[in-house]
């Protein structure tokens, strides 16, 4: 008998039929003799619909009010899932983020989990109940509802798993785990049986959307073994855990950002005068900087655009604020190779650049880190670039990892 | 400078444009120098949509889970309204039922307000903020979210008004106050400038849907003066307050139930053997009995059908349980005249019966109470019967009340 946390994403509970399917899956796990805590996201497009409604009513809606609003999405799906499980004959109770003891930092709309006071969840499990927890939300020190930012339900699942010392934490979505590349772009992509925390963090940062990077970091810090699985089949999925590098550095997977903003500052004067201001201007928009590369008197910033409501006005704002002294380029994308220690291996870096060149893709800039190589390319070429990297590193039998 | 509670119903906040309109109305009240607490219902059909989704997933969903689910409807509209008010430049904060200190009885899905701990609302008002409160919900002694039953947001508004000692409590809907009859049925119906608590309670019980009967009872008990007004114009609406009877009893307004179940027990044996069982069978379904009439060895129950999810199966259940010894008749409706002391005035009762007879309507049963006369008629004749009563009592200049 194990204690299992299962997290079901929005596409897994997008309609009544899918909620029934998820309920059956949870009940099967329960009847196999396990205790189950299910963490659930909002149904399908609910969060986006609520956000769009808010943005049609207020240009810059209060984040406290936004959090109150968005938290309803997961509360709706948690109640529906709980009553469906009860209908199948199992004892079940749903708990909101605050009721589940998820404590967060104060900042609304992008809070981080600071602690999980798991008493209530544990008591309900002891009473023999399945517990359904609303993902993506918690409560701050002022007793207000907060939300955890995009993909926050993954973090809820990992944090609850750490808090109740679960034996397993399974993150369900509509794909069979973590792939060597996005299978919608690369036909030859295949699921990986295991990934280390550090590699998964890099893949997520560089655009792999299966798992939220913060959730992976949380799992890493608390050493929670996470399994990414598909809601709609019984494939084993991908285990994310601690793993040491063995043998030569090699590329484990590739990922991409279809759209980035590239901000570049050139020359010592500009850097000294404006360097901090640019970072501040970006920071005050609460936007995540994907990578910063410094090289002598130039600094390049790559900014992922997923969280920017109005990309063009954001870019124009930067251009205007810095009066043409800073180059701001949209229509950019990136492709990255990820693997333990590959960034320090000149051979791997050279192979990547050669593969892209051979495919006729101009690399505008490249950044190597410990466990990743990232190449900036024109947005329309991202697909071709990703396929070229995948073909180079992951379709050649010599390079491909053995299946564990 | 007054302290004003304004309640806006679901049709007043049914879409973004209407939310903007309500926000402007609240801001105007604020800018006229008043403190405002706005109580808000769920947008349009939200509650019904959530309820239908729940019922498609579970035959008899847990009421605790239902309350968690339905409470989201008002939380969505409160957040959206609050951010829209902020967009107009006023300080505003939204509070859920529990945050607003609404304490209720334990029973889920049909809880009653026991107390309002108004400290948080008062503090926010003192800080100069408009407060938006989610209607229809509260928290029970176990700290769980409860809902107040159909029309519960009216009760929230009255209870908050009593709790913060508001100077005014305005209930907004899409009609100009309380009419002498439902204007969708009776063309000649007109808004009444004032109604007493007891008359409003009777009108509401007998089918007038402008104000929830529990809300009126709460207002009566706490002596909160309520004004029913229209969201979309500046008509003065109807004041509901303490009012003494003056002069001869007269009919103030008429109301109807388009659909009722009529349960009748005939004979001393049946009454003794089954009387209590029938009441229990109805009670366990949490259904409101509109009126019970005892007359020698017969008892008649009229049951409003608004809260019955499946009317036919409910009626069939009663018939089967009591093996044909109890007559259960659907397809019934009722029309009622309401006015202080009219039930004790033989002349008024006779006039009502004559008016219906003249209109060719068969009265299957009639019940007179202190302040009402109710006639049971076939469901298809409800409209004609209501028009006949209205014409008899409220379109004759001698009988019609003077405008105050």
Q: Explain this structure to me?
A:
Two copies of one chain form a homodimer. Chain A is of the alpha/beta class. The first copy, chain A, has two domains: 3-174, Acetylglutamate kinase-like (Carbamate kinase); 253-394, VC0802-like (2-Layer Sandwich). Chain A is built from eleven helices and 18 strands. Chain A has an eight-stranded mixed beta sheet, sandwiched between helices. A six-stranded antiparallel beta sheet of chain A has the order 14-15-13-16-18-17. A two-stranded antiparallel ribbon of chain A has the order 4-5. In chain A, strand 11 (226-230) and strand 12 (238-241) form a beta hairpin. In chain A, helix 5 runs parallel beside helix 7 (213-222) and helix 6 runs antiparallel to helix 7 (213-222). The interface between A and B is medium-sized, with 32 and 32 residues. Chains A, B: InterPro entries: AceGlu_kinase-like_sf, ACT-like_dom_sf, ACT_Aspartokinase, Asp/Glu/Uridylate_kinase, Asp_kin_monofn, Asp_kinase, Aspartate_kinase_CS.
Which SSEs are present, and which pair or pack?
Two copies of one chain form a homodimer.
Chain A: E1 3-8, H1 16-31, E2 35-40, H2 46-57, H3 63-87, E3 92-95, E4 102-104, E5 113-116, H4 119-126, E6 130-134, E7 137-139, E8 145-147, H5 152-163, E9 168-173, E10 194-196, H6 197-205, H7 213-222, E11 226-230, E12 238-241, E13 253-266, H8 268-283, E14 289-295, E15 298-304, H9 311-321, E16 327-338, H10 346-358, E17 365-368, E18 372-378, H11 382-394
Parallel strand pairs in A: 1-2, 1-9, 2-6, 3-6, 9-11, 10-12
Antiparallel strand pairs in A: 4-5, 7-8, 11-12, 13-15, 13-16, 14-15, 16-18, 17-18
Helix pairs in contact in A: 1-3, 2-3, 5-7, 6-7, 10-11
